[in-house]
Design brief:
The complex is a heterotrimer. Chain A contains 13 helices and no strands. By secondary structure, chain A is mostly helical. Chain C is of the alpha+beta class. Chain C folds into two domains: 232 residues, Rossmann fold, CATH 3.40.50.300; 115 residues, OB fold (Dihydrolipoamide Acetyltransferase, E2P). Chain C is elongated and about 75 Å long. The chains are: A mainly alpha, B mainly alpha, C alpha+beta. At the A-B interface, helix 1, helix 3, helix 4, helix 5 and helix 6 of A face helix 1, helix 4, helix 5, helix 6 and helix 7 of B.
Chain lengths: 293, 305, 361
């Protein structure tokens, strides 16, 4: 009797989570996937249309460009942020002066919203106001730095702003990892006369593998969800040259009123993420727990 | 204690170096500092541009660009950005957005942390069937792009009459904050000795009494981390506010994008930058005050998107 | 020629003096243990010898060379750490050879030295394993091996056994002692464990508050502690301390306890001159007091024992003498008198007398 009432109170405590999972996550996900197989436009209709939305989607230049941009942004932003963040962490770990100040300065962008990040970099990179105009003002009349308004280069501006926002995060994760390394290990390497850079290359980087993985996962999340930054920095333009999938979905949902195509795009995104994520999630959160039980 | 006994014969100092080795400020060290200083300048540049431009009159911006130091400092752009800059026909500055954000922030932070802590507690101490499945789906939720869920949610809110209300926004923040909050507290409670929980059970503690009387008071450090994460996260949100807030409840970030959107006539960059700083102010203040706790939050909520 | 020589060493961390004008001469092939409670400066001293921390003043000589400013790897030392400090993600073989490879030692030479170390420490079956796959004892053997391959004739040990369980600790202790015998290299070993110190060392340096209190053979440290700190830090259970006064009578002198009992001090070798009626403390090791009078100079004391602790080979009795806590160690087959007053007999030649400042008299 008493045991039973306790069991019910556990479920009562879990009710909000269960409701959210069932309706807000699983329910909406199935709904979205469902719509993607209909020919819904402005409003959802239950007319089954097979995979025609997917065919249209992958026939769309804009979608293919946005996918390409996501990969380009992902590889460059993650790669450079990891390298820069790691080097910053190593540099900060050399008993430098003003370490606290430098750490604060490097990490503060991560506290800023993508909206603020995008706006300020738009002003700095914009040719009529920012770097180009300033350098021209110094007398170099022919100086050109207008990547943000060029089709081929606009996405690199997004990469730059992304790195500015995220490198501090990598630094913080790596610094924590470095500080966690056994002090005796550094001593042992000094007794063995190992050059510091070799020690970092052969011992420290392999040891920091978990830090590299969690930083990569965190940054990849930002890559898939990348929306606000592009919206304010380039607006996806010029044309749709710097468009990204998340923005594609939002545009087709709320402006272009083609929810069939939008949900097909969202479902594609979902499947991509699941394919990458499931093995990692399983390894991280479930496999490790099994032996304990 | 006794006075030490120097029973060991003192050896005379020999030839050669004595005392601490001389410190060399070698090229390696110089390189490290150069790298750090250049990086710091890169990270500081946007903040510098915003602050400097926001206190310049327009004439100076036209003449000298956005990198020069202000010659004729003025706080007029700040006043204007706060209370009289125009978004379309609405000329109340960015302050309505600020107050909207505060109204959204307080209940969202409170509720999302409460539900997350409760769920984390239930999942780490109580054996319930399906707990692993629940947790797995929650984790997925943390990683999936919002675009997957957003349209059906719009339909649900419309059908229930919640669309464009503050309730819809708060509920959305609770929904999308739940995975990280749950993870945060589940990991924290996993570090609490299970014997403590067992002792509470033996003493007659029930599900809710153990949570409120024992676990919640013990969770103060994690609560601080959670508040930091949620305040910055929810304040910085754009997509939820844009989609669910409607015109009346749009948060500061959404209003900022409207405010700075190009209109006819000259763009008032100084006003725009002042408004941008104001929008960034809350998370920045949280960041500067919380210091190491912020870093801890990043590490703890390592799945935050 | 001494192998390691510390001359007027001073180390400060900020305003804190960790070591103050410390001198230490260690002969070639000696096994030296630095013993003391945590915070006494013993690890600081070892790290200074290794060159792992900056000294404030003084000199360090190793093998007749002034190495005060030398890099750790140029000092001709090997070191074993408490946390093993094995390089993760390298095999045992990789750990042993890593330093040599980085130093550009020829391959054949590396192979020879690794094989030697592996043979000495019986690591051959483990060479291809990762540190994570090893037990604590095996890890520490690998760590010792890493110090050995450096062919250094001074080996430093920083509490190498304290992370191991009691059984392994004893095994490895014996192994280290055997290693010292076969290698003949100078060894400096830091520990807070007096059993390790007494069993391993040729000479022990007992440290307290950054100062070497006594530097002598284990026997000397145990039997003739130079002050009350050394007397109470070494030995378990602790030495008994009885307060009283020394009285001089012609040639002889005697010690009067607070309860009036007088103990003849004939046979005690005084180190310092004493005055009549000088207040002092008499230190008696538990095993130096016996229920039966042994041969000579056995002074009787009135004792009352209340607790009996059988330890296996012997038994500890706890009680009081002249109102002060007192314990004795008797053999297990002796009959203990519990709860009533009895006599214990003390061989005065094996006791220690301390003056009010705690110095040995």
């Amino acid at each position: 009797m008493k045991q039973g009432s306790i069991r019910w109170s556990v479920y009562a405590g879990l009710t909000p989570a269960i409701l959210i999972v069932v309706f807000a996550y699983v329910g909406t996900m199935i709904w979205t996937i469902g719509i993607s197989f209909t020919d819904s436009r402005m409003l959802p209709v239950a007319r089954f249309a097979g995979i025609s939305q997917y065919v249209r989607l992958f026939g769309s230049d804009r979608w293919l460009t946005s996918l390409q941009n996501m990969v380009l942004f992902g590889v460059l932003m993650i790669g450079i942020s990891l390298a820069l963040g790691f080097l910053l962490a190593v540099a900060l770990d050399q008993r430098v002066r003003a370490e606290g100040f430098l750490r604060t300065v490097i990490l503060y962008p991560y506290a800023m919203s993508f909206i603020v990040t995008g706006l300020v970099w738009q002003w700095i990179l914009g040719p009529t106001l920012g770097i180009q105009e300033t350098v021209r003002g110094w007398g170099f009349e022919n100086f050109r730095f207008d990547w943000i308004v060029q089709k081929e280069t606009a996405i690199y501006c997004v990469v730059l702003a992304g790195i500015w926002h995220a490198a501090g995060l990598v630094m913080a994760i790596m610094l924590a990892g470095l500080r966690g390394i056994d002090q005796d290990l550094w001593k042992a390497s000094r007794i063995d006369g190992i050059k510091p850079w070799r020690f970092y290359l052969h011992i420290v980087i392999p040891m920091l593998r978990p830090s590299f993985i969690s930083a990569t996962v965190l940054l990849s999340l930002g890559v898939v969800k990348l929306y606000d930054l592009v919206l304010v920095l380039t607006g996806g333009g010029p044309g749709f040259s710097s468009d990204v999938p998340a923005k594609f979905v939002m545009d087709y949902l709320f402006q272009r009123q083609n929810i069939g195509l939008a949900t097909a795009a969202a479902t594609t995104l979902l499947i991509t993420v699941l394919c990458v994520l499931t093995p990692w999630l399983y390894a991280e959160y479930f496999r490790a727990e099994r032996p304990k039980e | 204690m006794t006075a030490p006994i120097h029973s060991i014969a003192s050896t005379p100092i020999g030839e050669g170096p004595t005392g601490s080795a001389p410190k060399r400020f070698g090229p390696a060290r110089l390189g490290i500092y150069a790298f750090l200083v250049i990086s710091a300048l890169f990270f500081l540049l946007p903040l510098y541009v915003m602050v400097v431009t926001s206190v310049k009159p327009m004439a100076e911006i036209r003449a000298g660009g956005i990198f020069a130091l202000p010659m004729d400092m003025t706080f007029e752009p700040w006043v204007k950005a706060w209370s009289s800059a125009c978004t379309g026909l609405d000329c109340r500055g960015i302050s309505p957005g600020f107050w909207n954000s505060v109204q959204i922030l307080i209940p969202s932070v409170f509720l999302s942390i409460f539900v997350g802590a409760l769920t984390g507690y239930a999942l780490s101490f109580w054996r319930v069937r399906g707990a692993n499945l629940l947790f797995a789906v929650l984790l997925m939720g943390a990683f999936l792009p919002y675009q997957v869920f957003i349209y059906p949610l719009v339909r649900i809110y419309s059908a229930t009459g919640m669309f464009s209300t503050i309730y819809a926004l708060v509920l959305t923040h609770v929904i999308f904050g739940l995975p990280v909050m749950t993870l945060l507290f589940r990991n924290y409670y996993a570090g609490i000795p299970i014997d403590l929980f067992k002792a509470a059970r033996v003493d007659g503690g029930r599900f809710f009494s153990i949570f409120f009387r024992l676990m919640l008071p013990m969770s103060v450090p994690m609560l601080v981390v959670a508040v930091i994460l949620q305040v910055t996260g929810i304040w910085n949100d754009f997509i939820m506010g844009l989609t669910f807030g409607g015109l009346a409840n749009r948060p500061m970030t959404v209003q900022l994008t409207n405010l700075v959107a190009p209109t006819e006539g000259e763009i008032a960059y100084n006003v725009n930058m002042a408004a941008t700083i104001m929008t960034a102010a809350v998370p920045l203040v949280v960041y500067f005050i919380s210091g190491r706790w912020f870093v801890r939050g990043i590490a703890a909520g390592a799945v935050k998107g | 020629m001494s192998s390691v020589s510390i001359r007027n060493l001073k180390i400060t961390f900020g305003a804190l003096n960790v070591l103050e004008t410390l001198n230490l001469e260690i002969a070639e092939g000696e096994f030296i243990v630095l013993l003391g409670p945590s915070g006494c400066g013993k690890s600081t001293l070892l790290n200074a010898i290794a060159g792992l921390l900056d000294i404030t003043d003084g000199q360090i000589w190793i093998n007749g060379r002034n190495v005060t400013w030398s890099e750790p790897h140029d000092r001709g030392i090997g070191m074993v750490f408490q946390s093993y400090a094995l390089y993760p993600r390298l095999t045992v073989e990789g750990n042993l050879s890593f330093g040599l490879k980085m130093a550009g030692t020829p391959k054949a030479e590396i192979a020879r030295r690794v094989a030697d170390a592996a043979r000495i420490l019986q690591l051959e079956p483990l060479l291809k394993r990762q540190p994570a796959q090893l037990s604590g004892g095996q890890r520490q053997r690998v760590a010792i091996g890493r110090a050995l391959v450096r062919d250094a004739n001074v080996l430093l040990f920083d509490e190498p056994l304290s992370n191991l369980d009691a059984k392994l600790r004893t095994e490895l202790r014996v192994e280290i002692k055997r290693l010292h015998k076969s290698l003949g290299s100078t060894m400096i070993f830091v520990t807070h464990d007096q059993v390790e110190a007494l069993t391993l060392a040729d000479r022990v340096a007992v440290m307290h508050n950054g100062v070497i209190q006594q530097f002598a053979t284990p026997k000397e440290i145990y039997q003739r502690p130079i002050n009350r700190f050394v007397a109470s830090f070494v030995g378990s259970p602790q030495m008994n301390f009885l307060t009283g006064t020394i009285h001089r009578r012609d040639e002889a002198s005697l010690f009067r306890l607070t309860d009036g009992t007088e103990i003849d001090l004939t046979g005690y070798q005084f180190r310092l001159p004493v005055e009549d009626r000088q207040p002092a403390t008499l230190g008696i090791r538990p095993e130096q007091a016996q229920l039966q009078p042994s041969s000579n100079h056995a002074a009787p004391l009135k004792a009352l024992f209340t607790i009996e602790e059988p330890m296996g080979p012997d038994t500890l009795l706890w009680g009081t003498v002249a109102g002060e806590t007192f314990s004795i160690r008797i053999s297990a087959d002796q009959v203990a008198v519990i709860g009533e007053e009895c006599q214990v007999h003390v061989n005065i030649a094996h006791t220690s007398l301390f003056d009010e400042a705690g110095e040995r008299l």
